[in-house]
Design brief:
The protein is of the alpha+beta class. The chain has a single domain, classed as 2-Layer Sandwich (Alpha-Beta Plaits), CATH 3.30.70.270. It has seven helices and six strands. A four-stranded antiparallel beta sheet has the order 2-3-1-6, with helices on both faces. The protein has a two-stranded antiparallel ribbon with strand order 4-5. A hairpin with a 2-residue loop joins strand 4 and strand 5. Helix 3 crosses helix 4. The chain is extended and about 95 Å long.
Length: 211
């Protein structure tokens, strides 16, 4: 083998190793912000998202963003009654449902536990409520379920929708969306309670038509 051939071989080897190193770096960068249970982004992505939004604002790209905060109902009871594996299945199912109902540019994050945060880019809460939020609310109001021991277990949850405000800190934006979600959850539980309560019976007043 000539000296030139040896040099060429070394260069090719170095290029191959460099490509592998870059691929590995991209892989670990992706894994660092990915939730291994749902396949969505994890909470580390929150800082990146807020930084990304700030950069777009600085470049005069005025984009409206609807911030969604999702929380499952009675998730602790689900885990307690059926086990953590069933709870994990519920989270995976919700993650899959979210991915099917958002666009490529939108960002979905599992914040932790049964809490999810969505950034819908280029839309307002009003528009989101008529599209993505409406679909997700239908899914989380009885359409989404798991089959456990021949039983259909509905996966229910509440959604808060907030217009992302660049003047607020990331934590404040999340806090507002969380508060709206809690109001929605309280309203839903009150409605459910009213539906399940027996209708009041009126005392007998005799024959209203007379004898």
């Amino acid at each position: 083998m000539t000296r030139w051939s040896k040099s060429r071989q070394i260069i090719d080897t170095l290029k191959t190793e460099l490509l592998k190193a870059r691929e590995n770096a991209r892989y670990w960068e992706f894994m660092a912000v990915t939730d291994d249970l749902t396949g969505l982004h994890n909470r580390r992505m929150l800082d990146n998202v807020h930084h990304h939004i700030a950069e777009r604002r600085n470049s005069s790209m005025e984009e409206r963003i609807a911030l969604l905060f999702i929380d499952l109902d009675d998730f602790g009871q689900l885990n307690k009654k059926f086990g953590d594996d069933v709870g994990d299945d519920a989270l995976r199912l919700l993650g899959k449902t979210i991915r099917k109902n958002i666009r490529k540019d939108d960002i979905a994050i599992r914040k932790g536990g049964d809490e999810f945060v969505l950034f819908l880019v280029g839309t307002t809460p009003e528009l989101a409520n008529r599209t993505v939020v409406k679909r997700l609310e239908l899914m989380l109001d009885g359409e989404l379920s798991l089959t456990i021991q021949d039983m259909e277990i509905p996966i229910r949850g509440s959604i808060g929708v907030f217009s992302y405000d660049e003047k607020l800190s990331p934590l404040e934006n999340l806090k507002h969306a969380d508060e709206l979600m809690r109001k929605q959850k309280k309203k839903r539980k009150q409605t459910k309670k009213e539906r399940e309560s027996p209708a009041p019976t009126s005392p007998s007043t005799g024959n209203v038509w007379g004898d």
